[in-house]
Amino acid sequence: MKRVIGIVALIVLLVVGTYFLAHQFVRQDNSQKESVKIGFIGPLSGELAVWGSSQQGGVRLAVEEINNAGGINGKKLEVAYEDDQCDKTKSVTALRKLIDFDKVRVVIGPLCSGTVIADAPVAEQSEVILFGFGSAAAISTAGDYTFRPSYSDVYQGEFLAGKIAKRFNSIGILYVNNDYGLGLFSGLKAEFVKNGKNIVATETYSLQDKDWRTQLAKIKSAQPDALILISYGREGGLIARQAREIGIGIQIIGTDNFGTVDVLEAGGEAVENVIFTSPATLDETKQAVKDFRANYIRINGVEPPIIFVASNTYDTTKIIANAVKTAGTNAEKIKMFLYEMPPYHGVSGVIKFDVNGDATKDFVFQVIRNGVFLPYDMQSFG
What we know:
This protein is α/β, with parallel strands linked by helices. Helices cover 47% and strands 19% of the residues. It has helices at 2-33, 49-68, 88-100, 113-126, 153-164, 179-194, 213-221, 233-245, 261-267, 287-300, 307-327, 331-340, and strands at residues 35-42, 76-83, 106-108, 129-131, 146-147, 170-176, 198-205, 226-230, 251-254, 275-279, 344-346, 349-351, 363-369, 372-376. The strands form 3 sheets. Strands 7-6-8-9-10-13-14 form a 7-stranded mixed beta sheet, with helices on both faces. Strands 2-1-3-4-5 form a 5-stranded parallel beta sheet, sandwiched between helices. Strand 6 (170-176), helix 6 and strand 7 (198-205) form a beta-alpha-beta unit. The longest helix has 32 residues, at 2-33.
């Protein structure tokens, strides 16, 4: 009887031991398959979809390169994508979903100033890192967990005003009435007047508008030396077209959003010789930028619609990978890493976050000639 009991006990031990060994193997195997998940919020549809698709394409390329190089500490990087159409309510809902359902601790986006400002309190309360690409001045003080890898509207407005004041004594301005337009207009107005020059006409419009002839007619009657358009891509081209149709023949000057294929398609000949501001850090003569463009096409099947936007999210994704590799997935530790990290030399330029989480970038001018974006000699503005 004792012998039988001993044999049974041995069998039980073998079965139990085999179960725990198998369970341990499965647990280890699953741990190797774990991924690092982050979120993305942007306008993947709607009026600003060309911006969102540019961003998403940059993220996709970065993710492929990171994973092909072994991932983050052996784990694959995974992205949960959300479309907010640059709508504040949709953006907050998307962020809540990423935090509560997908359990992410880092989010790339949103794109628009208004959506970044709406999302920032949620990110702050939830202690989730938010990389907002909006350019409104208010983003600088939106919270410790909100970082901006791009630039401020106010700074861009000041840069533009300082340059055009050397060439034009008076300007008329048409700007979109939202956070982007207001921030850029405030910087432009203050600096242009500071230089002793005159703003003879100021008009605004809403994103839903399709006809700008009334505002343009008022600007035309004020007889400015130049027309400044603070707009988004497609509408900027359409506004330029309507300006030419009503006989406005003066120099048109746009802001960073003019560097899009949407402007060319919507504006046609009307945008020929339009000058606009552009981030200076994206040097397309560099091999790294040429490689980025080629690899973007390989992954996404199309040219980057807005290359500085695509390269900015590409660099941001690489920075996130470096942060998680060093600091783990704890948002507080990632935050400290970002504030203290050395300058990151990426495709879009050098990124270093200041005490407000802002990355400062310089600007240059570009001009549209024969449907192509070309560098514009800075000396042309005096």
